Amino acid sequence: MARELLEALDQAGVRLTGPRRELAALIARRQGHFTAADLLADAERRRLGIGRATIFRLLELLADQNLVERVDLPDGRHAYVPCEPSHHHHLVCVSCGAISEVDDCGIDAVTAEAARRSGFEIQSHRLELFGRCPNCKSAESHQ
Amino acid sequence: MARELLEALDQAGVRLTGPRRELAALIARRQGHFTAADLLADAERRRLGIGRATIFRLLELLADQNLVERVDLPDGRHAYVPCEPSHHHHLVCVSCGAISEVDDCGIDAVTAEAARRSGFEIQSHRLELFGRCPNCKSAESHQ
DNA sequence: TCACAGTTGAGACTAAGTCTCAATACCTTG
DNA sequence: CAAGGTATTGAGACTTAGTCTCAACTGTGA
Ligand SMILES: [Zn+2]
Ligand SMILES: [Zn+2]
Ligand SMILES: [Zn+2]
Ligand SMILES: [Zn+2]
Fold this sequence. Notes:
Strand order of the largest sheet of chain A: 4-3-5
Number of helices of chain A: 6
Radius of gyration of chain A: 17 Å
Oligomer: homodimer
CATH architecture of the largest domain in chain A: Orthogonal Bundle
Distance between the termini of chain A: 35 Å
CATH class of the largest domain in chain A: Mainly Alpha
Helix content of chain A: 40-55%
CATH superfamily of the largest domain in chain A: Winged helix-like DNA-binding domain superfamily/Winged helix DNA-binding domain
Structural class of chain A: alpha+beta
Bound molecules: zinc ion
Order of helices and strands of chain A: HHHHEEEEHEH
Number of strands of chain A: 5
């Protein structure tokens, strides 16, 4: 998975530097969503000596390439989710942070209808679904 | 509109203080979305002497009562939109900031389908649509 | 191997948001 | 229309998120 990120960055014509390789590995081993602060903490824990700016810069690069998507958590924090470059949405587990992807099962019809009613020309949209994943659901009922 | 906010706050059992009345008026006269910083600037411009904390506290209160909704702008800023307490979504004009409301024309079917496929129990969702409002669209084509 | 443009980390800086605390102002009760 | 208890307030310190600059460094293509 780290490899895919790096290949895509290479395609995009940026340099494959040491810090970028290390960060790609850190992102690859994360489960679910993570914040810039999480990555920073990972890097510090491993004494990689990667600066804060470098992390924000890479996240921006990855987001530009749609290799990572920005998710706004219900508590207002900004998080990221590594994901396929195709358009889709995320289900976020509020208790363990697990992520599941949803392809557009009907959302396009919703936006088209909204555009028709409002007269807006819709350029982009963001749909985030929050809830509990199957694991957390059953964990709670077994307790 | 300021009156409605104040009445709802009264219902909620909080005190109707001077700063809250003034802020309600400021919010009422805003068009479209606004950030905490916008409100703060409004208050300073009028020399109301309202502290930063008071503004964040009121926004949180209003959000709890669903009198105002948090919107995450595409550029990552957090904004607020005054709105009806019923569930609905917003169309945000990226060029002038105008807001239009959309009631759930089909989104519930989308979330239900996503829940079925993923096994998640969906607790909440957030849908934001970004684009250009009719005014801005025609302004551009007439230029 | 070389040169140069892209990238880096440090750290200053700005902006966003939270917290504490003593002073104040609602509002209920008498 | 007091008076008193409590919710609320502003100031400002503090924390966290994110940006910017710049000199030093390092991929990369020639
Ligand atoms: Zn979509
Ligand atoms: Zn979970
Ligand atoms: Zn609304
Ligand atoms: Zn507009």
